[in-house]
UniProtKB/TrEMBL annotation:
Its membrane topology: Multi-pass membrane protein
Lineage: Eukaryota, Metazoa, Chordata, Craniata, Vertebrata
Protein name: Lipase maturation factor
Compositional bias per record (Acidic residues), positions renumbered to this chain: 756-765, 778-800
Region annotation (Disordered) ranges: 722-800
Length: 800
């Protein structure tokens, strides 16, 4: 029994000592799963108490994994973040479905699905959406969309709360649900972050575990291969976003003045954007320089073999995304980018966050020469980056004015030549990095003990490597869109494969903030309504700028999709936004679902009692106000001037309005449809009645807060359970746990000596008892069983 408790103590102390907060309970395995995490499956009783040789190999394997930079913890954090982001996306869209895609919404979804009696498979191939199943369930398209949103929200919430549900099949269902909504989303779902969510969601299918529902705690030798695709996606996103700013020839980006307009011209700014807008021009230009460096130069470090360079790249990306979150409402896009940044981490750095000193790799084993060489290389890389920044942007310090001067010191032709030079090498860097990950994981699979297990792991590696290489290959097509000659040099077979999967949004091209709009003032469309055509009242939106005294809102991570499209509509004539005519038409009809897109609390809508008889729209130019002379904030956040008429005055039956509706096919000529009365439809309508009137951002924040609280309580429970397990085994122990094989040998040798002394003492006691029995005239007691047990213990001691 002492053997058993000693080994159990060794095993449990590895997972329980030096606990450092609730996050440890969330992302580190509890004691009863420590061996399952190591070996990938529950071990039998005989394996739970291994011999010194097996335990020694376990420790050596742990040290080897630390040296190779395991990604088990970042992978688990990434999957948890993706479950949260999916929940946000589904809930945000669910609230807006009736107004956007309902039967009386702006762009009814049923217009996108033409039920022609074709076989289901043929319909799915023509338009991959689960909404084709609606009629078979007795649901119309609008109700089916709500049901898909609810199913996605519930499934992602469950995956957020329970780690076992962060499974490949669960993420496949989430991806299929969002893709189904995307297919009929039309202009309101055609944002780059929707494409990014679909592509990242597809990668989650590969990253998440598939063989069992044990959750992502289980270690798999090929995890690094699939997780590498997340890093490649982050590189494509950031590098392309930086490049397109210069290839667009936007004068504000080339003149480094883009941020002097950005804060007030972005779609939905935050209150902090007003303060950021007041920063001096030289600082705004220096910030643009920093943006170019972070988006173009730093992403190459994502594939560096030196982990400190990758960590430096990680923190620069996090800094950029946090600043964007503070100054603008970009829904879940920045959260999604931060989740992608987790691919730059390894277990060692997460242990550093958690203050798990016992898990950190001992650097003393590294040679001093190797350490100094790494430091010199890292210093050289950062020095070269700084020097290149100074040269390319002619940075100079003006001591008289105490600021830094900057300008673009290269031409468009030079940058275009640079892009032609580096695009293909970037592809080859990706190829080399992926090859290294594949070879490393193959070596791990080949080192698995047991022929059948090794054979099964090699089969898994073959399938995973093939899938990863395929995704990487087709991703080269949208990546090389940034440079035409490089794109033309791709193998035609890769293009054909990309064309086959393009409809599923597996890979996409990106390029955010290509051009800076609103240089002459932020264009904003203001809708006005009137009951008599004389007195006009502005219709104020809940999120977008309109009322000059209303502070900018904070709605992240919710995306009010109508407010976003109003921002795009203001950039051109109303004919470029056909849905705007539908908005005017629905407001004249007084449709409640559309009104709730403008004001969730319909009592704040100026025409909630009776629809307006006339509606018109004007375009204004908005600017942030300036601080007062004494430095205090102004009473108003905005100032504006009238620009032009955006939409003429119309009323129901107006010739111009009817002509526009007919031109765009927005007038529903069919009779009113009867609502389905199936059980599922009634349940969906009942749930809608419960959340009606609740602002979407409030609903999302509530779900996020409840989920975070549940997860923290779960982590606290795991931590307490670990602490109790350690105290029950040896509450007074102060000795250090064995971290290396030498420590284990030393402790086992000490224990063997102690056991040998106890064994000899026990034999003396038996001899004395036999002699006493003989002196008393009694037959010796038959102690064969006891002697056999002692002999067995001796043999176990020798093997131990």
């Amino acid at each position: 029994m002492q053997h058993t408790f000693l080994k159990l103590e060794y095993i449990l102390k590895r997972a329980t000592v030096t606990s450092s907060g609730l996050l440890e309970g969330l992302f580190l395995p509890p004691p009863h799963t420590c061996l399952q995490t190591r070996y990938g499956k529950p071990l039998p009783d005989s394996s739970f108490f291994p011999s010194s040789r097996i335990y020694r190999s376990d420790i050596l394997q742990t040290e080897a994994e630390s040296a190779m930079g395991e990604v088990t913890l970042p992978r688990r954090m990434f999957l948890w973040c993706m479950a949260v982001i999916y929940m946000i996306a589904f809930v945000s869209l669910y609230v807006q479905v009736p107004g956007l895609y309902g039967n009386e919404g702006l762009l009814p979804a049923r217009w996108q699905l033409r039920y022609s009696g074709k076989p289901l498979l043929e319909q799915l191939l023509s338009s991959p959406t689960l909404l084709w199943l609606g009629p078979r369930l007795g649901l119309d398209t609008h109700t089916a969309m709500e049901l898909l949103c609810l199913a996605g929200a519930a499934l992602s919430l469950a995956a957020t709360l329970f780690e076992a549900l962060r499974h490949s099949l669960v993420f496949f269902c989430l991806w299929a649900l969002y893709l189904s909504l995307y297919q009929v989303g039309q202009v309101f779902l055609y944002f780059q972050w929707d494409n990014l969510l679909l592509e990242t969601g597809f990668l989650c299918i590969l990253v998440a575990p598939l063989t069992s529902f044990s959750g992502p705690r289980v270690f798999r030798e090929h995890d690094g291969v699939t997780f590498w695709l997340v890093r490649w996606l982050l590189f494509r996103l950031m590098f392309a976003s930086g490049v397109v700013k210069l290839t667009s020839r936007c004068p504000t980006w080339w003149g480094l003045t883009a941020l002097t307009y950005h804060y007030e011209t972005q779609c939905i700014p935050t209150p902090l954007a007003w303060f950021a807008h007041q920063l001096p021009v030289w600082w705004q230009k220096l910030s643009v320089v920093g943006t170019f460096v972070i988006e173009i130069a730093v992403p190459v470090l994502f594939f560096s073999p030196l982990r400190r360079l990758r960590l430096g790249a990680f923190y620069t990306q996090v800094l950029l995304q946090v600043l964007i979150i503070l100054s603008g409402n970009y829904n879940f896009f920045n959260l999604l980018t931060l989740a992608l940044c987790l691919s730059l981490l390894d277990d060692q750095h997460v242990y550093f966050w958690l203050c798990r000193r016992d898990k950190l790799k001992d650097q003393s084993n590294d040679s001093k020469l190797q350490s100094w060489l790494c430091y010199l290389v890292e210093l050289g890389v950062w020095s070269l980056l700084i020097f290149g920044t100074i040269v390319c942007f002619d940075l100079q310090v003006d001591a008289t004015k105490n600021h830094v001067l900057s300008r673009t010191a290269f031409t468009f032709h030079q940058f275009n030549q640079f892009l032609k030079t580096v695009t293909i090498p970037c592809v080859w860097i990706g190829v080399l990095s992926l090859t290294w990950e594949m070879v490393t994981s193959m070596f791990r699979c080949a080192c698995v003990s047991g022929f059948l297990r090794r054979f099964w792991r090699m089969i898994q590696w073959t399938l995973v490597a093939t899938a990863t290489a395929s995704v990487f290959s087709i991703s080269l097509v949208p990546f090389t869109y940034i440079e035409y000659d490089s794109n033309a040099r791709l193998w035609p077979g890769v293009r054909q494969a990309y064309d086959l999967v393009d409809r599923y949004q597996l890979v996409n091209s990106y390029g955010l903030f290509r051009r800076m709009t609103g240089v002459g003032g932020r264009p904003e469309v203001v809708i006005e309504g009137s009951s008599d055509g004389v007195t006009w009242t502005e219709i104020e939106f809940m999120y977008k700028p309109g009322n000059m005294t209303a502070p900018p809102p904070v709605v992240t991570p919710h995306q009010p999709r109508l407010d976003w499209q109003m921002w795009f509509a203001a950039l051109g004539p109303h004919t470029q936004s056909p849905w705007f005519t539908s908005l005017i038409y629905r407001l004249l009809q007084g449709k409640r679902d559309v009104i709730e897109l403008i004001q969730t609390d319909v009592t704040k809508y100026p025409f909630h009692l009776q629809p307006p008889a006339y509606i018109r729209a004007h375009r204004y130019r908005y600017w942030f106000t300036e601080p007062k002379a004494d430095g205090s904030s102004a009473q108003r956040w905005w100032r504006r001037v009238y620009d032009e008429e955006f939409y003429p005055t119309v009323h129901l039956g107006n010739t111009f309005l009817d002509g526009m509706l007919n031109q765009y096919g927005l007038k529903d000529k069919s009779s009113s449809r009867r609502l389905p009365n199936t059980t599922a439809a009634q349940a969906v309508r009942w749930l809608r009645s419960q959340v009606r009137g609740v602002p979407a951002h409030t609903l999302i924040w509530t779900l996020m807060a409840c989920s975070a609280t549940f997860c923290l309580l779960q982590g606290l429970r795991n931590r307490n359970r670990s602490s109790q397990g350690a105290s029950l085994i040896n509450p007074d122990t102060t000795t250090s746990k064995p971290d290396t094989a030498d420590d284990v040998d030393r402790l086992l040798e000490d224990h063997k000596e102690t056991e040998q002394a106890d064994y000899e003492e026990e034999e003396d006691d038996v001899s004395c008892r036999d002699e006493n029995d003989k002196e008393e005239g009694n037959d010796p007691v038959d102690d064969n069983s006891e002697e056999e047990e002692l002999e067995e213990d001796k043999m176990l001691d020798e093997s131990f």
